[in-house]
Design brief:
The complex is a heterodimer of chains A (126) and B (592). Helices cover 75% and strands 0% of the residues of chain A. Chain A has 126 residues and is an all-alpha fold. Chain B is built from 20 helices and 21 strands. Classes of the chains: A mainly alpha (126), B alpha+beta (592).
Chain lengths: 126, 592
């Protein structure tokens, strides 16, 4: 046994070293795999959230476009109902027409006389 | 088992199987590291460096491109009433070849009510086009309500395409001023063409500010350049034009022009109403007109041309105002200067006669203008001399474009001394508006210069431009001083007398300064008396000009004379303006 010990003793540190190196390599691979997995998951998460945002944005754009179309339609309706042709037709149906010169009466209104206060009085009032 | 077996460090066979047989070589490690680095670099490249490219690619793949927002700004009148705005056209298209029998039935059921078609008719159309493997347009332009309803159904094989198109709520009104927008969204003629690149919004971005603010000018803000109140709503494109045009005045001008053309059996006509102090165009009517929403339904493309700015004509006696203005300005004449108005006057082989071929004997310059005497006018021009005459013609803006903000303006034809095409006799004929070509706008603007105390302004139809959040006021631009203020005043008095001479324009209580013009139209075989262009140009109130009106009727049949055709139309327009604006008679104004 003693002899056996003598013979086997120098191989143990080598094995230990090899095991250590293997462990280190494994750790590196695991870490790298983890890193890549993390990056990949981040990428997937980012892509997913980007896609989700784009869908939300697209939905909002569609909603906005629809609102804009309705707004344009309302403006068109407003413009049509207030056009000169419609207004004139409505006015004439209601018995209105352009005023004639003979219908005007001009009334003279005298402006009230303005008395300027002396400057010392203005100062005193302030 | 040998005795050395115990000394051997070999693990058991199971353990041997689990362990890698070979340790990775350094090269392999480097390769793995490079591969990992490559993957990392790809991620980095995709997410950081080229994210925009991939972003847009994914957008194309995943998100339907959003409909471009209203791509064109609005055109409104001076009070904000819309003249050209955007609306949406909903087009329904079916692709029957991607529909199954059940889908076709469903589509027929759902759309028959919305499109007002029978279910059977719809079904047969879908089957017919399915065999041809073609798309079919079920409706070109359905209303927004129906369009949105069909869109919301989201039926397989049914597409609702939405296009923004131009809409003109006032229909034909001011069609020559506005122009139209073609199907490829390009502005044609008028303002749409002149401001085409401006009116198209560069981006889809919406301004966060609800109301544009007025840009401060050096002159400061004045009530004239303020934004219109309700009903003005800036467009989402924020590229809007606020015109000096007043739709009520435009309406009056168009109605009276149409009535005048019908009454006097003229072929076409033009009415221009301007603010003579700034040359802002308040109305510009031309007939025949067209519907810009249905611009292709015209008998000829010539109808698109705005005759007020693009068609030249010989102005006739209205041009005498320029001759008299030049002569007064150079002190060649006064209103009392006497001339012998002979039966004819020959100048460089050019024989000049009055309209009735009779001379009036000794007349004053004032009488010559009032009676529109060609002979005396030609004599005044020859006394003035060609150099001074043509310089005055140029100062009044003839022979060049006025610079109005409308597309396809013509500059007119003025033959000047020592240039090809000019003969000395032209001095005599040009003096009363023959052998010289102008546009109605040039003529109106020249008379506006007399009304504004002698200063010629650049005419304009746009009074304010809205660009983004800024509303920029377009100030009136003086171009040149055509005549002195004193000359302008003297000529105005002479024009009042001339207008009083024409009974057809007289409105009791109001002093109107104006002048008739009956020009024979040149053609094969020279001038013909029965082919005339009748014009009346004038402004009022004469002592404080607020409005300038030019009426031009081409080839009236009931009478060849402007006093019997253009003048009554002028009077009706002026009367309408007086009533609309409540302009008191001169006596009332002077007592105020």
């Amino acid at each position: 046994m003693i002899q056996q010990n003598i013979i086997s003793s120098p191989t143990q540190p080598i094995e230990l070293q090899k095991t250590k190196i293997r462990n280190q390599n494994t750790l590196i691979v695991i870490l790298l795999t983890l890193g890549v997995a993390l990056l990949f998951s981040l990428y997937v998460y980012q892509a997913a959230s980007l896609y989700s945002s784009k869908l939300t944005l697209a939905a909002k754009e569609q909603a906005f476009a629809r609102t804009e179309r309705l707004n344009a339609e309302a403006l068109v309706y407003y413009a049509q109902t207030n056009s000169m042709e419609t207004m004139v037709r409505r006015a004439s149906n209601a018995g209105f027409g352009p005023a004639e010169a003979s219908q005007f009466q001009y009334v003279y209104i005298r402006q009230p006389a303005v008395t300027l206060m002396p400057s010392n009085e203005i100062v005193a009032r302030q | 088992m040998s005795i050395y077996s115990n000394f051997s460090p070999q693990p058991p066979i199971e353990e041997q199987a689990k362990k890698p047989k070979k340790k990775p070589s350094p090269e392999r490690r480097i390769k793995i590291m490079l591969l990992l680095f490559g993957v990392f670099a790809l991620f980095l490249s995709a997410q950081v460096v080229r994210h925009q490219l991939f972003g847009s690619m994914s957008e194309k793949e995943l998100v339907r491109p959003s409909i471009k927002l209203l791509p064109r700004g609005a055109i409104v009148d001076t009070h904000g009433h819309p003249l050209a705005i955007q609306r949406f056209r909903y087009q329904v298209v079916a692709s029957p070849y991607i529909m199954g029998p059940k889908t076709k039935k469903l589509v027929s059921q759902e759309l028959s009510v919305l499109l007002g078609m029978s279910e059977e008719a719809l079904m047969s159309q879908l089957n017919e086009y399915d065999e041809m493997h073609q798309d079919i347009t079920l409706d070109e332009d359905i209303g927004s309500e129906t369009g949105e309803a069909i869109k919301a159904l989201d039926l397989t094989g049914i597409g609702v395409y939405i296009y923004p198109i131009r809409f003109h709520p006032e229909k034909n009104m001011a069609s020559h001023v506005l122009g139209f927008v073609s199907v490829d969204n390009v502005g044609r003629y008028g303002l749409e063409s002149y401001f085409d690149s401006f009116l198209v919004a560069p981006t889809n971005k919406i301004s966060p500010h609800p109301t544009p603010h007025l840009e401060k000018t050096e002159q400061g803000q004045s009530p004239e350049n303020s934004l219109p109140d309700s009903p003005f709503i800036p467009s989402l494109a924020r590229r809007d034009l606020i015109l000096s045009l007043d739709r009520a005045l435009q309406y009056v001008a168009e109605q009276e022009l149409k009535a005048g053309i019908e009454a006097y059996k003229a072929e076409n006509g033009v009415i221009i109403i301007m603010d003579p102090k700034t040359s802002a165009v308040l109305a510009m009517a031309a007939y025949p007109d067209y519907d810009p929403d249905n611009f292709s339904a015209v008998p000829s493309d010539d109808i698109y041309i705005n005759p007020a700015i693009s068609k030249i004509y010989e102005p006739g006696s209205v041009f005498k105002l320029i001759t008299f203005a030049a002569a007064l300005n150079e002190s060649i004449i006064t209103p009392e200067t006497k001339y012998d108005d002979t039966d004819e006057f020959i100048y460089f082989q050019q024989t000049v006669q009055n309209w009735d071929r009779e001379g009036r004997g000794i007349v004053t310059a004032q009488q010559a203008l009032a009676q529109s005497l060609n002979v005396t006018t030609a004599k005044i021009a020859t006394d003035l001399g060609q150099e001074k005459f043509y310089k005055a013609v140029a100062r009044f803006g003839f022979g060049v474009n006025t610079g109005i903000d409308l597309a396809y303006e013509a500059g007119g034809i003025v033959h000047t001394p020592n240039k090809p095409g000019w003969v000395p006799g032209y001095l005599a004929t040009n003096s009363f508006g023959q052998a010289i070509s102008v546009t109605p706008l040039q003529m109106a603007n020249a008379v506006a210069a007399i009304a504004s105390g002698g200063v010629l302004h650049r005419p304009h139809v746009v009074r304010m431009v809205i660009n983004g959040d800024v509303a920029r006021s377009k100030e009136s631009e003086p171009v040149s001083r055509a005549i002195t203020e004193k000359t302008a005043h003297t000529l105005t008095q002479m024009m009042i007398a001339a207008a009083e001479h024409t009974e057809e324009v007289t409105i009791p209580g109001y002093a109107i300064a104006g002048k008739t013009g009956t020009a024979e139209i040149p053609g094969m075989g020279g001038y013909k008396e029965d082919r005339t262009i009748a014009t009346f140009t004038g402004f009022f109130p004469a002592d404080d000009p607020q409005f300038l009106v030019l009426v031009k009727l081409e080839r009236p049949k009931t009478s060849a004379w402007a006093s019997q055709t253009a003048a009554p139309v002028f009077r009706k327009v002026v009367q309408a303006i007086i009533n609309m604006y409540g302009i008191p008679p001169d006596a009332v104004r002077h007592n105020q």
